[in-house]
């Protein structure tokens, strides 16, 4: 019989997927050097490939998702 799971998730035993709801994620600002490289890359390639985004994330010490979101936001700003 499946037991009630107070953490949600749809699975009876999702304690291994538990995220602390009180843990706050703070916004990370890009540094000037990160910004310069991202901007120069944007002027060359507004829609970088996944491989280029991965390379940038390693080079800039940023999560891949943050690089992807940066480019999405920059394209929206360019409109």
Automatic annotation (TrEMBL):
Pfam families associated with the record: Homeodomain (PF00046)
Domain of life the protein comes from: Eukaryota
SUPFAM superfamilies registered for this protein in UniProt: Homeodomain-like (SSF46689)
Domain annotation Homeobox: ranges: 21-79
PROSITE patterns assigned to the protein according to its UniProt record, in alphabetical order: HOMEOBOX_1, HOMEOBOX_2
Listed SMART domains: HOX
Cellular compartments per GO CC: nucleus
Any coiled-coil regions, as ranges: none
InterPro entries documented for this protein: HD (IPR001356), Homeobox_CS (IPR017970), Homeobox_DNA-bind_prot (IPR051000), Homeodomain-like_sf (IPR009057)
Keyword vocabulary terms for this entry: DNA-binding, Homeobox, Nucleus
Subcellular location: Nucleus
Gene Ontology molecular functions: DNA-binding transcription factor activity, RNA polymerase II-specific; RNA polymerase II cis-regulatory region sequence-specific DNA binding
GO biological process: cell differentiation
Protein name: Homeodomain-like protein
